[in-house]
Design a protein that fits this description.
Shape: globular
Strand order of the largest sheet: 6-4-7-8-9-10
Radius of gyration: 23 Å
Largest sheet: 6 strands, mixed
Oligomer: single chain
Structural class: alpha/beta
Number of helices: 5
Order of helices and strands: EEEEEEEEHHEHHEH
Helix content: 25-40%
Amino acid sequence: ANATWTKPTRGTCSMVRINVSLASGAAPPTKPKAKQPSLFGEDCQAESTTPRRTRAKSSDEPLVVPFTIEVDLRERQCGWTFQGIAGGSRQKYRPLIIPTREIHMVTADYTAQGYDVYVERKSHDDFIGSITGGHHNLELEFERMRLIVDAGGYCCMIVESSMDRICDELDSPSSMRRATSSSVLGVVASWPQRFKVPILFAGTRRHAELLAFRTIEKYVEERT
């Protein structure tokens, strides 16, 4: 595709300050509306009677993402493919072409080529097994990710499940696991504080894939 990527810019919102101490009774001078950045990357307009705009119709012309996602070789069979993802409003919701390449990764499963952002993927069963079956190997993984974070990078674990589903399965009378939900809750509560690596529960595999892409995209966006 010949289309080019438009980098999102920080949105703005406005505030008007009125000098109420004017003794003349004259209306205060009008000043241009000051702008400040929005945390959500969208334009935050002051309250207005203007009707809200409806979502623009998406275009079918694809955009090529200007970075490559590197995927660990072990993810070849069951990993994320980053297919069927659309851009945001600033890309007019156009379909994205996301370049990927396979590499051998010692730490985590996904990264952006040339950037210190790393995502560890865990399926529902893999996450439970890693926590309840003795989490020595997982703890070593978090230790390596903490070194990356300490050096200025970003790491996270994204789970293709929800906390309630995991806890309900462990606490079920038919569960064959030796651990209960308290084991998972203890790890989820303490490890992000100990290792500075958040554990994100996306609910489903698809939402986990989308969250992984947005995590990498936002990291790259902030540094280009």
